[in-house]
Design brief:
The complex is a heterodimer of chains A (about 120) and B (about 120).
Chain A: E1 3-6, E2 10-14, E3 19-21, E4 23-26, E5 32-38, E6 44-50, E7 56-58, E8 64-68, E9 73-78, E10 87-97, E11 100-105, E12 109-114
Parallel strand pairs in A: 2-12
Antiparallel strand pairs in A: 1-4, 3-9, 5-6, 5-10, 7-8, 8-9, 10-11, 10-12
Chain B: E1 5-7, E2 10-13, E3 19-24, E4 31-38, E5 42-50, E6 53-57, E7 64-68, E8 74-78, E9 87-94, E10 106-107, E11 111-115
Parallel strand pairs in B: 2-11
Antiparallel strand pairs in B: 1-3, 3-8, 4-5, 4-9, 5-6, 7-8, 9-10, 9-11
Classes of the chains: A mainly beta (about 120), B mainly beta (about 120).
Chain lengths: ~120, ~120
């Protein structure tokens, strides 16, 4: 069975400091893992995707995520936060078995940036 | 290239009524999937259509249904509305089926449904 746990519902950092958003997952198969961002009154935008090609995944806007199988984690990081990074972030797991696909969303982490 | 378009943007309905939401995918995309977003339950997958066929389905009651037309546009219908159906409904389009595994999901800005 799939599950996704985002360990923090809210993270607040100062502009220019590092960002860490934590995600743990569970899946019976070899899942694809994603991070999406949602700005207010908008849909979700894909930040990055892991599909087993490399454990360190680089995404848009300077975000990265590292897949650690032993820890079943897929944490999102950024070296230096910008005011425009303030948004809701979702960790997502999706897998495809035979012809059936499943997708599970984490509960979200709201990122606030202090000037 | 135009993005995913959802209409209407806002909708207010009364309990017991039915509602139809529309989603126009990015040109060339054949997969459309639907999601419900609420403060209490978060984001949940409703169903996915690909080439006019439902390919995947989440755990929602039969009051929630959808269809896809030959031009890939999709509609979602909710019958006998309940207060708990108040939510932001998002759709996403993709080149291939697989809910993001095979090709990226591109989301619309959603339809906010309020049931009174």
């Amino acid at each position: 069975a799939q599950s996704v746990t985002q360990l923090d519902s809210h993270v607040s950092v100062s502009e220019g400091t590092p960002v860490l958003l934590r995600c743990n997952y569970s899946s019976s198969y070899s899942p694809s893992l994603f991070w999406y961002v949602q700005h207010p009154n908008k849909g979700l935008q894909l930040l990055l995707k892991y599909t087993s090609a490399a454990t360190l995944v680089k995404g848009i806007n300077g975000f990265e995520a590292e897949f650690k199988k032993s820890e079943t984690s897929f944490h999102l990081t950024k070296p230096s936060a910008h005011m425009s990074d303030a948004a809701e972030y979702f960790c997502v797991v999706s897998d495809q078995v035979s012809s059936a696909s499943k997708i599970i969303f984490g509960s979200g982490t709201r990122l606030s940036i202090r000037p | 290239k135009a993005g995913v378009t959802q209409t209407p943007r806002y909708l207010i309905k009364t309990r017991g009524q039915q509602v139809t939401l529309s989603c126009s995918p990015i040109s060339g995309h054949r997969s459309v999937s639907w999601y419900q977003q609420t403060p209490g339950q978060g984001l949940q997958f409703l169903f996915e259509y690909f080439s006019e066929t439902q390919r995947n389905k989440g755990n929602f009651p039969g009051r929630f249904s959808g269809r896809q037309f030959s031009n890939s546009r999709s509609e979602m219908n909710v019958s006998t509305l309940e207060l708990g159906d108040s939510a932001l409904y998002l759709c996403a389009s993709s080149l291939q089926t697989g809910l993001g595994v095979n090709s990226p999901l591109h989301f619309g800005n959603g339809t906010r449904l309020t049931v009174t």
